[in-house]
Amino acid sequence: MTQETLFLKNTETFAESLARCGVKYHFAYPITPATDVMKRMAVILPQYGGQMMQMESELAVSSALAGAACTGKLAATSSSGPGLTLMHEAIGFMCAAELPCIVFDSMRVGPGDGDILGAQSDYYVVTRGGGHGDYHTIVLAPSSGQEIADIMPHGVRLAYKYRAPVLFVLDGVSAQTTESTTLPAYNDYSAEFDTSEWAFTGTKDHAKRALITGSYTHQDGYEMNEMLRAKYEVIRNNEQMWEQEQVEDAELVVAAFGIHGRMCRDMVAKMRAEGRKVGFIRPITLWPFPDNAFEALPESVKNILVVEMNHGQMVDDVRLAVNGRVPVHFMGKTGGDQPMHTLAEMITEANRILGE
Amino acid sequence: MENLSSKYGKTLNLDKLTSYCPGCGHGIVTRLVGEAIEELGVMERTIAVVGIGCGGFSHHYMDIDAIEATHGRSPSFAVGYKLAMPENIVFTYAGDGDTCAIGLGDLMHAANKGMPITTIMVNNTVFGMTGGQMSPTTLEGQVTATSVKGRDISSQGYPLLVPEMMQSMAGVKYLARESVDSPKAIRKAKKSIRKAFECQVKGLGYAFVEVIVPCPTGLKMRVKDSYERCANEMTDYFKPQVFKDETEQGDVA
Ligand SMILES: Cc1ncc(C[n+]2csc(CCOP(=O)(O)OP(=O)(O)O)c2C)c(N)n1
Ligand code: SF4
Ligand SMILES: [Mg+2]
Question: Which of A71, A97, B7, B228 could in theory staple to B85 by disulfide, Cβ–Cβ 3.0 to 4.6 A?
Fold first, then answer.
């Protein structure tokens, strides 16, 4: 497949980007607003010599994903909150087992079966591991179709470099936006990595290998956790990503990801035109959280406003990052006919804080 | 200790002592699985996907790659593996609790998909590893740590007949229930397990063998008594038989 510019729903862009970056196997179970990914994968993967397999539940989805990952080949899945909850059994397993894969969460309103409208309700669950035990998954939060396409090679490389599941999250609004995107030419980025060192391909290739996440001795459990601790330390130190603008002399910094992060660009341009000293930080990695961006804020910053499509989840990480140095305000909502704040509402709140 | 590999071939690794309790049926089934793999000459491309339970240790006694799956999900792990690496031979090995309590959904859908995968279910009618609790295959009236007055079918249901549930699935090409209660039964079990692997080697479809075995520890019985129970009460209800054998098609590739 060559590079081409298409007018696509971002879920479809996600599927195209997966396939063009080397994903061969996709396992999924239908759920709004993520179903378009599996639908497109069903059509396009055979063209790449792969296959989309519909499973009977998200429990089976993540288990099959783990089974495929054991071969060293690149596999992926796509879902939304209720499905992601079920998938956490095998996502945690893959973290312990050090298996690479790509997981996509098109976030909708939760908890319970919630609502199919877009939300950012899964920030906690994706950044805190999600299942039992001390683990994290790398979480990437692109905010447009183009960013999905541009960041996918990096996502695949992270999965193989750290041998771990990489999660992509989009609020369902961004996920269902239709826009022009330039898709990359086909290149299997997982092929840059030598999987023969660890993949479970049979004793024709190596001496017996066994994938064991349970402890046989108490020392095993300790060592697995220390291995993960060291890995997460490296990731925290090296893999933080964010976008920022006009922070250098700002009095107020707005922090948001996904669709609200994208809106920050317009918000800051508008407010700057009115002489307001506003900047923004848009986290691209939600885990590791871009602490460095907040630690480096200049003295001029007197307030931070966090905007989310939930009741305040990422705001906790912002508070931890500034550690009391700067007051942190929050605005957010979830559910309803308009499950997010408008640009006008964001500007009103920013002006209110600036006028305090 | 004498190295038994020369006698049993390369697949079985009997250099280490097994983790099984004395008299445990897993020991026999593990050996039969190892022998089937050895005889078919597929050891180097065979992957064990084992469940959680006492059978999870089985792969340690075979020199093949192995994946210890999450509890009950080995059939789904196997489906994902087989899709990505169809040239390899994938089998799941787990107890009755793993296979038909927590993992029944995964099992039925994997079987119904009809991919060439082999499943060995080792039914000892209890959760052995966690200390002898009731499982879906616990017999009517059987006393366990969690059915202290005996399994009451009015609320706890009847013991689950798993291969019978698969009989109508066209994608299942070999389907049998065997027992290890006597040398004769073991010879029959050996044949069925071998066929279940052959079915996959020929690429025909899903193969399933349930093996009725004793768990002297979980049942709190003497070894001899536990084998007698296996030959009587257990196999009276779980009747050993070959339900389906469509393995005569195709060649061993
Ligand atoms: C999700 C989950 N639930 C429960 C357990 C605890 N557990 C370990 S083994 C087991 C039962 C195993 O019974 P069975 O499959 O019959 O195997 P056996 O030991 O009898 O061979 C249970 C419930 C677990 N490891 N994971
Ligand atoms: S508890 Fe039962 S199943 Fe487990 S090893 Fe002992 S005898 Fe075998
Ligand atoms: Mg059991």
Answer: A71
